[in-house]
Design brief:
Pfam families: RibD_C. The chain is an alpha/beta fold. Helix content is 23%, strand content 28%. It has a single domain, classed as Dihydrofolate Reductase, subunit A (3-Layer(aba) Sandwich). It has six helices and eleven strands. It has a nine-stranded mixed β-sheet. A two-stranded antiparallel ribbon has the order 2-9.
């Protein structure tokens, strides 16, 4: 048993999620941010990699008060780190009252204001989340997480929001890897503001 895994990502027309500057590249407009907020509200937990926690300092909250009121419990925050080296003052830990879970490899210690769990690989992580009642997991990046879930055949849905800009260089949506063969199934296309949202599912 594992949760239903949804990968969500905004990228440029040429496949970049960030550029080479020190400032964070803003791809999504207000309409797409609201779509993502609704997607978060439909899930039980949200996961980002440790690199995203360090680089972007995300809060990982549901912004809409109405959507928060309709939930039985808060959106669980999840990250994984190979070293345990995370800033306990990061917004991941300090923003909101939701449960925070940090997954580390066996034998790794992490003194953090969160539930620290040792696991050996993503399948074990997903099994642990399922045991904690997580039925739907939203993965919001970054590149290494997208690559790991897709190359491991662990993503059930992929939602790509394509912004009408060309970046020309920087960080791509995924790294080079060996991915499962076969075509994903395009389930929906939607215009959200000035962005195109493509929704794919993994064939059963």
């Amino acid at each position: 048993m594992r949760p239903h895994v949804i990968l969500s990502c905004a990228m440029s027309l040429d496949g970049y999620i960030d550029d080479d500057t020190d400032e964070r590249l803003i791809l999504s407009g207000p309409a797409d941010l609201d779509r993502v907020d609704a997607l978060r509200a439909s899930c039980d937990a949200i996961l980002v990699g440790a690199g995203t926690v360090r680089a972007d300092n995300p809060r990982l909250l549901i912004r809409s008060e109405e959507r928060r009121r309709g939930r039985a419990r808060d959106l669980i925050k999840v990250t994984l780190t190979t070293t345990g080296d995370l800033d306990p003052g990061a917004a991941f830990f300090t923003a909101g009252d939701a449960e925070k879970i940090v997954y580390v490899p066996p034998g790794t210690t992490a003194d953090l204001p969160a539930t620290v769990v040792e696991v050996d690989g993503l399948p074990a992580l997903l099994a642990d989340l399922a045991a904690r009642g997580v039925g739907r997991l939203l993965v919001e990046g970054g590149t290494s997480m997208h690559t790991a879930f897709l190359s491991g055949g662990l993503a059930d849905e992929l939602q790509l929001a394509v912004a009408p800009i060309l970046v020309g260089g920087g960080t791509r949506f995924v790294d080079p890897a060996t991915f499962p063969k076969g075509r994903l199934t395009l389930k929906a296309m939607e215009q959200v503001g000035d962005m195109a949202v493509l929704k794919y599912e993994r064939p059963l």
